[in-house]
Design brief:
heterodimer, A: alpha/beta, six-stranded mixed sheet, four-stranded antiparallel sheet, B: about 250 residues, mainly alpha
Chain lengths: ~300, ~250
């Protein structure tokens, strides 16, 4: 569906994108993950034809974005980081304008707009001025704009940034429903978001691809280094040494320690057989040290980066 | 192109810009006309030419937002990522501004109608002035659009186009200044005054060649010629093309 080959983009002397290659298959939801300034938006802008690359090619449905821009752009619906909204128009006026710009057939227009309005749930506000809408609604209008013309590919640049938790959940649900009929590229710097909606993830860092993998494989890669947090009452040294003696525990680091309550981070080797959590529990029970808190620490994006960049 | 035209034209009436421009124009044109009308001698050509001085203010105001505002809001991305050519976007915005001009000019058409129905003079010279009016308007609007494409601040765009338009209307003064300073330089070299005069005349003529206003001055007396219109038209196209290049450059900037 999309082939990206050795993409390079300079901004002055700065290399924003440095040889990125990957491909997106039909019907797939691809997460595009990276810290701020990694080159996510730049890459997306190049794929959609907003910017040109310094070198490298982008092919959308077999059409090169530079050589056959009109054909390629017809296949893409794009929601940029800041939704491109004319605040002085009503939602419906704006979407009709987008229909005009994208050259949507007059006969299909009415049915399509009705369908899109219902899908992103903005029917109630369709006659309101965009400037007066809340941020969540504006974001939905932005998604509606990308859906106009029924493009096969949707490119969404950080669609949930700046929304409240409820809105984030709704937008995610919307993206998942869109994924049934579209190929979606979704950028984000939030890991859980990508985990929630994507089939495959491209992680980029400093303009380079750090990893391309499915979510499950990515989790496996990290499995060697998963961590638990344990808070307890008791003597730190004795607890640490007995924790160390449990097979499968790699490391024990003290995080917080005051007179009575201590918090340690336990590094676990998941490849050992048996559930380490119960061994830890029984060890603590045997020593008579009450457990105050015991939970697994979800790997943060930073940890994924560290593990991936250190591992490769 | 039509989509862009429609959007931009309607947006003039979604904020005060369009109304203020039309109201001001109607007031000024009406004031000039009524004064003359009461005096009993209406000269429509001179009314039209006086209204041209209004270009200096109105053109920057109605063109400053056309591209600058799109860039500030980030809506320019719509045009770059849709299957439309950027030149058609430029043309659409240009036509929107020109249509506003046409609406304002309806005032003058009304004045022409009133004059004619009272047995006044609406002659070839009047129509000549109308033709020149629109060609100059197109040229000035294209300059305003160009100014709007090089910045993302409306005010800067307005200032840039104001300065360019002001220099165009002052070309004849530049020309005579240049020729008089050349005269003093050459006469200090001891050239004969005859030679100095021919040099100065030629220099003045050369600079004035750039002046679309003196070029088209024959039209008000009914002397029509194609060359000045071609000059205005092609300069308009040059500025629209420059605008297009400036916008395309953004895509290619490294």
């Amino acid at each position: 569906m999309i082939q990206i080959n050795n993409l390079v983009k300079y901004y002055g002397d700065k290399k924003a994108v440095n040889g990125i290659s990957f491909s997106v298959n039909k019907g797939e939801v691809l997460g595009f993950l990276g810290p701020n300034g990694a080159g996510k938006s730049t890459t997306m802008n190049i794929i959609t034809g907003y910017l040109s690359s310094t070198s490298g090619t982008v092919k959308v449905n077999g059409h090169d974005i530079l050589e056959e821009p009109e054909e390629a752009k017809k296949c893409i619906g794009y929601l940029p980081e800041i939704p491109p909204l004319y605040t002085d128009m009503t939602v419906l006026e704006y979407l009709r304008f987008i229909c005009d710009i994208k050259g949507v057939d007059k006969s299909k227009r009415k049915e399509m707009l009705a369908r899109i309005l219902a899908m992103v749930r903005i029917v109630d506000v369709s006659d309101r001025m965009i400037g007066n809408l809340s941020k969540g609604y504006k974001q939905r209008v932005g998604i509606a704009q990308a859906l106009v013309g029924d493009p096969e590919i949707l490119i969404l640049d950080e669609p949930t940034v700046g929304l409240d938790p409820n809105q984030i959940l709704e937008i995610r649900k919307l993206i998942r429903s869109l994924a049934k009929n579209h190929t979606v590229i979704l950028s984000s710097h939030i890991l859980s978001e990508v985990q929630a909606v994507c089939d495959r993830v491209v992680i980029i860092n400093k303009g380079r691809v750090a990893a391309i993998d499915t979510i499950t494989d990515l989790a496996k890669r990290l499995s060697g280094t998963s961590k638990m947090l344990l808070a307890f009452k008791g003597p730190v040294k004795a607890v640490c040494s007995s924790l160390h003696s449990i097979p499968g525990v790699n490391s024990v680091n003290t995080r917080i320690s005051d007179n009575e309550i201590h918090e340690v981070e336990i590094g676990i080797n998941n490849n050992t057989s048996g559930d380490i959590r119960s061994s830890i529990f029984f060890t603590m029970a045997k020593g008579g040290w009450p457990i105050l808190e015991f939970r697994s620490l979800d790997p943060t994006l930073e940890e994924i980066f560290l593990s991936i960049t250190n591992g490769v | 192109m039509l989509a862009v035209f429609k959007r931009e034209f309607l947006s003039y009436f979604k904020n005060p810009t369009g109304y203020v421009a039309i109201a001001l124009y109607s007031f000024l044109a009406g004031y000039i006309f009524v004064n003359k009308f009461a005096g009993g001698t209406v000269n429509l050509s001179s009314e039209i030419i006086s209204m041209r001085s209004y270009f200096l203010i109105i053109v920057p105001i109605i063109t400053m937002g056309l591209f600058a505002e799109d860039k500030r809001r980030g809506t320019d991305i719509i045009y770059y990522t849709s299957p439309v050519s950027i030149f058609s976007v430029v043309l659409g915005k240009f036509l929107a501004a020109m249509s506003l001009f046409f609406i304002m000019f309806l005032n003058v058409f009304a004045h022409m109608f009133v004059t004619a129905s009272y047995g006044g003079v609406v002659d070839v010279g009047t129509w000549g002035s109308v033709i020149v009016y629109f060609f100059l308007a197109a040229l000035f609007v294209s300059i305003g659009i160009f100014a709007s494409s090089i910045t993302d601040t409306q005010i800067i765009s307005a200032i840039v186009s104001f300065v360019i338009l002001l220099s165009i209307t002052a070309i004849d003064r530049f020309a005579s200044n240049i020729s008089s300073s050349l005269a003093s330089i050459f006469s200090s070299f001891g050239l004969s005054s005859e030679k100095v005069n021919t040099i100065c005349e030629k220099a003045e003529k050369a600079v004035n060649w750039l002046n679309p206003i003196t070029k088209t001055s024959g039209f008000r007396s009914g002397i029509f010629s194609v060359a000045p219109l071609v000059f205005c038209f092609s300069t308009t196209l040059v500025f629209l093309f420059l605008t297009y290049r400036v916008l395309e450059k953004k895509r290619w900037a490294q």
